[in-house]
Amino acid sequence: MKEQRCHNDSIISGPAELLIVDDDERICRSLECYLQHEGYCVGSVSEGKAMWQYCEDTQPDLILLDIVLPGVDGLTLARELRVKNPNIGIIMLTGKDDAVDTIVGLEVGADDYITKPFDNRELLARIHSVLRRLSTNDDAKKATDDAKNIVQFNGWQMNTDTFELIAPTGEKANLTSIEFKLLEILVHNVGRVLSRDQILQKLSSREWQPNDRSVDVLIGKLRKVLETNPSQPKLIRTIRNMGYQFTGKANSE
User: CA-CA distance, 245 to 253, in Å (whole number)?
Assistant: First the structure.
């Protein structure tokens, strides 16, 4: 396992801990240097066993996880990470321009993905986005903004500042950051039919591959959380040949 490094002149308060899991040492070195310069504490390992040891020692906030790894593959590791630590950020790195990897990555709980080769600035934007959605530590802002950032619909309550979703029973629902962002998009467009392309653009403002099924996977996961009968959804309707429509009654406090 490589030694963790942290740049002293951090651009954020209490620099986030990032872990790169990739067996390509050149990529690890390059990303470590770049992300350290951007103010993050950065470490890297080459396979799953070392990743678990690093997580136990350091508890990173976000993991950049390659799909193809020696031994246990990245998708399996992502699934296990999500079970053991629901609050950790996961961005999948893949060298395959393959929609299947994207879909499976989201299914196992990844927050985002990026295909190699990628622009470091694009990766940095993804990291910022995931960390922002995961962050619940700004107590002063939370106290000021909670009231205006709480949205209620059909007995559910979501806080768009702390990224929490509370069920009508009072239990907290576990959503990945990208699932929460999708729900936020739907709730803020009540009654409007959104195409898959519109949803994907709002989710990440990126170019997507033709016939990308990522949004269908995410919708399916939201239905399992929100719907009494996911096979006959009432809150998130499929509009044939058009897209999806959120039919809940939402109001902001």
Answer: 23
pTM above 0.70, yes or no: no
Burial of 18 (0-12, 13-18, 19+ CB in 10 A): buried
Of the candidates 212, 248, 206, the one whose C-alpha atom is nearest the C-alpha of residue 227 is: 248
The encoded tokens of residue 108 equal 């196992």
Q: In this structure, what is the dihedral angle of CA atoms 253, 141, 90, 190, given to the nearest 10 degrees?
A: 20
User: Between the CA of residue 17 and those of 55, 61, 98, what are the distances in Å?
Assistant: 10, 5, 29
Domains of the chain: 5-134 (3.40.50.2300), 140-252 (1.10.10.10)
What's the Cα-to-Cα distance from 106 to each of 10, 42, 57, 146, 196, rounded to whole Å?
A: 30, 24, 27, 29, 16
The enclosing H or E element of 58 equals helix 48-58
- Host H or E run for residue 7: none
Conformational region of residue 10, where left means phi above 0, alpha means psi within -120 to 50, and beta covers everything else: beta
247, with CB counted inside 10 A (0-12, 13-18, 19+), is middle
Q: How far apart are CA 243 and CA 215, in angstroms?
A: 10
- Tens of pLDDT, residue by residue over 117-148, are 899 999 999 999 889 877 754 443 444 444 45
